[in-house]
Amino acid sequence: MGPQKATSHPGQQLVRPAAPKAERARQEIDYGRRDVAGYVFGAFQPATGAALAQSYHHRTTTNWVDFLSAVEAWITPATERISAVVDNLNTHSAPDVLLFSLLHPRWEFVFQPKYAAYLNLIEPWWKILRSLALKGRRFETWAEIAQAIERATAYWNQHKHPFIWGRRRRHRPPRRLGVAAVPVLSRI
Q: Domain Tc1-like transposase DDE spans what residues (predicted)?
């Protein structure tokens, strides 16, 4: 039928033209980041869908080791092996991180190849976190951003589900149960 518009037709008084015209909402153009900067470290368990995110003002080796200690406390002691897939950032391979891995033998660090972020299962979750916490919002301070990330992570953990890597399967017709039948050829 196409686009339609509401019009008043002659002889009918359905629309009153005396109403004041509505004005569009105005929003200030946002040109920059207002010197608001910080870093978020995250951990993700694909089998359960649980996530942990902590924000820091700086990206340092001390903050990274502090985050690894938080992950160590977050993961249950029954877990025998922790595989941490990390990128090639220099803080991820610092001597303090090596000391951490020696003190915690269940940790295994796997460094992903350069330009292969898609191999890390946390990358799709970062996209979801950005849409939950940051999309469509304007922040003036780093504390507001950190609070939004904390709330979004808490919301995610309340509604967590196992995370499956790859694209979502489209609607497929259900398969028939049973043994497949041999196709019948018709004779002419």
A: 18-142
pLDDT tens sequence across 25-62? 665 655 555 566 788 999 999 889 899 999 998 889 99
Question: What is each CA distance from 174 to 170, 177, 179, in whole angstroms?
Answer: 12, 9, 15
Neighbours of 91 (CB within 10 A): 17
| C-beta pairs of 131-134 under 8 Å, 24+ apart in sequence | 132/156
How many other CB atoms are there within 10 angstroms of residue 75's CB atom? 16
Structural domains in the chain, CATH included, are: 39-158 (3.30.420.10)
Would you say 39 and 115 are in contact if contact means Cβ atoms under 8 Å apart? no
- Whether residue 108 contacts residue 83, with contact meaning beta carbons closer than 8 Å, is answered with yes
